[in-house]
Automatic annotation (TrEMBL):
Gene that specifies this protein: fdrA
Designated name of the protein: Acyl-CoA synthetase FdrA
Gene Ontology molecular function, alphabetical: succinate-CoA ligase (ADP-forming) activity; succinate-CoA ligase (GDP-forming) activity
Pfam family, one: AllG
A GO CC term attached to the entry: succinate-CoA ligase complex (ADP-forming)
Organism the protein comes from: Vagococcus silagei
InterPro entries: AllG-like, CoA-bd, OXTCase_su_AllG_h-dom, SUCC_ACL_C, Succinyl-CoA_synth-like
Amino acid sequence: MLQTVILKNNYQDSINLMLLTNRINDFDSVIMSQIMMGTDANKDILNNTNLLTSEAQEASANDLMIVVESDDEAIMDEVLPEIHSFLDDLSSNDSASEKKAATSWQEALEGLPDANMALFSIPGEYGASEMEKALNHNLHVFSFTDNIPLEDEVRLKKLAHKKGLLMMGPDCGTGIISSIPLAFTNVVSPGNIGVVGASGTGIQEVTTIIDRLGGGVVHAIGTGGRDLSDKVGATTMKDAIVALEHHAPTDVICVISKPPAKEVRDEVVQLLQSITKPVVAIFLGEKPESHEGKLYLAHTLEEAAHIAVDLANDEAVKANYFEKVDAPEVQTLAEDKVVKGLYSGGTLASEAGMMISEALSLEGLVKQEGYVLHSHGYDVIDLGDDIYTQGRPHPMIAPEVRIEKIEQYAKDSQTGIILFDVVLGYGAHEDMVSALLPAIKAAQESAAAEMRDLYFVATVCGTEKDPQNYQDAVKRLKEAGVLIAESNAKAVQLALLLKGIEITEADKEVKPYAGTTIEVPEVSEKVMELLTTKPRIINVGLQNFNESILTYGGQSEQFNWRPRANGNKKMIKILDALDAHKEMIDAENQKVLDKMKNAQPFLIDVVPAKTVIPELNEAQKTLLHAGPPITWDQMTGPMKGSCIGAALFERWAETEEEAESLLARGDVRFMPCHHVQAVGPMGGITSSNMPVFVVENRLEGNQAYCILNEGIGKVLRFGAYSEEVITRLDWIKDTLAPTLAKALALTEEGLNLNVLIARSITMGDEFHQRNMAASLNFLKELAPLIIKTDAPESEKYEVIKFLADTDQFFLNVMMATGKAIVDGARKDTLGTVVTTMTRNGVDFGVRIAETGNDWHTAPVNTPKGLYFTGFTEEDGNPDVGDSAITETIGVGGMAMIAAPGVTRFVGAGGFDDALATSNEMAQICLGHNPTFTIPTWNFQGTCLGIDIRKVVETGITPVINTGIAHKEAGVGQVGAGTVRAPLGCFEKALEAYAEKLGIVVD
């Protein structure tokens, strides 16, 4: 039985999730589990293991998928607390740090403005575009990230070379820059040797042996395993060699390469022969018979280290560095017994496979299904190959895969020797020896019980300064009966001695170089600056990589990266393309922001809608509605109910049945309020004789309109249309509106709404669900004027009493204010700022400055919140209304922190949740509006300018405070809560914006 839980917008590093998966898989009741982010690649992994559920299929790349197979129906009750505890520990470790991690490139670069390198450990499917950003920010790149397409590696390395930067990787497992250890790395003494290599255990083996020989390394520059392929052309290796040639503290250069393309090897050799510094090189898979010119060619990694140290000490290079290992005092194995190599490092595995194949005349190295040697029963496996690490931690981190293989091979009677490595250092398992010893001891005991010989032979790759303690690791392995050699080459030699096979190495002489040399290029200033200072690193991904950097004197800024656009590849491409136009877009957006910030809204009148909206004064019966365009047959219950009520109010019909027949026949034209400078709450229905507020934005000279608030109870805006509703609408038309109009006429310039709003937000209003302070301030301003009008005393009392009793009265004024502000901001502007958000019960619609009156829509969501007694979420209608105009200008749900008193009512929790909501909303806005400051937010201004780029990039959509209407016509309001705008409409807006700039992405 498969059970799935999706934790929305909960991005976690893949390595941490692999470790967490292993922990959950240890539960007795768990058959199998997988905890990973919802990327397409991860869904493929789930599918391949029959764990892909429908819920997981719908997850985004920023959603955490938890899939557990178990016969226990209540397994999640056991699993989820463990998962939350694990994640809480990660969060507490993060929060314990003095400095908050960056969540964007902008924050990261502001946090470390003089950064010169970016270290990546993020999923490969997103790596190329992020590395390109780093290079365009003039940062050298160290890519621990692998699975980057070859064509992207070629493109990135060409870009880096052009910009005078180093592109180290992809799949750069280890490195040392200015004696600062990076990624999966050992602590090696500083010195005068510079290493350039394929950036895995090859570098680790050579540098740790150099350290144990008393030498030191100043730089170990990783290239990635494909750098010497014919497609890449050794771009990074050649740039690094040139850099070390010009780096004065480097006296010796050591080159480590996996089997290269011949023509590329020749180019590298030509460059090495052209520089002035002594060089030792190893091209794995080759068995050199002599040295060539000034280039010393090694056969093994150990030999390369010995030659480098001699050169660094100005000592003559010996003809032979081979040292015989002492034969162990054990019985020689029978001829049919074979060696099985289980390596966590690919380069060490390749070296072992090469040496065994040479000694036994086997078929040579292969690369298939994790094997590097697979011949006549002799197997050497690279357990770090993709086949073993997809969805699982690297074997340097977690022992599970190697333990499985130990158990498998130990049961095979043909197995005589299990050869393995233990790699120490930062990033590696904190105590791999302890993790492996139980399986080793069990295998030894099982073999002894069956009266057969089984030997374990190991090499420990590390130094005395590594956090795991090199000598202690060696000691405990020896005590467990494991035969230990001081290098990988010696471990292979020892393993073969157990079969009575001795390895020897012939002397090598120096032969003249027969090729030509070239003029060595100059090195860029940026590369020299990297090599002559301590690195200043933006660490994009795994937080643990900061430890070695900071411990040894480097600087780092943690960037808690997550996929752009929820991993949507199309949106990522659009965002990447728009980055090239950032300066222009920002300038256009600033014009919109300035108009919003400097708007001057005044409430100047209350008039019948038909007097200011010509479309309502035509012969054709017309109703305005909330949201983007919609037809009668598409409308949900509450909007239809509001239409019926409006028809009754206008006396187009005498009964509900007549009204519904009129509307269904198509005798009434429907039009969005937004198309005629108006807005309407909930259903938004506005008819010709309904009075509207008139708000004038004196910055731009435009006006906006909104019907008056009906109060509470059964009201038209929520779809009610009883006699009580119509009677109240008549009173609003005949008494309330004329009285307010007369009062406003007594003002000199109307009611200055900026002043009223600024005052009310400091009193706890957010202007969507809570308008109490604003409504009372409105009454405070108008009550003296109402008294002065010539209206009958009874009507004055009724109006003042109604205003005093109607806490939400100001909402409709605020809506007209928002409409006036955004319509003014939309005039003659472009850019990516959202200038309308609205919903009609079916679709959520947005408009942006650039695309004018075009609607970008997606299916609307249903609010979550608190329901009145007798009602549940089943009764709630999908969200509806133009009132999201408040969130468009940064109040309402965007300013939740302004009204902590209302947060529980709308289902947002308490103060901390309100603060978190407003902080989250700030992430998708371009700034803050100083006109409306919020005391509970440290006097920050309200959010200003929702940017579709930020919404799509982060996957954070605006939060809207809203009332909840019953889904059936005539019932009315049944609750209140919050709703999220759907991401799809912002994605459509972004795509439309890109097309305006000529950017089309398939």
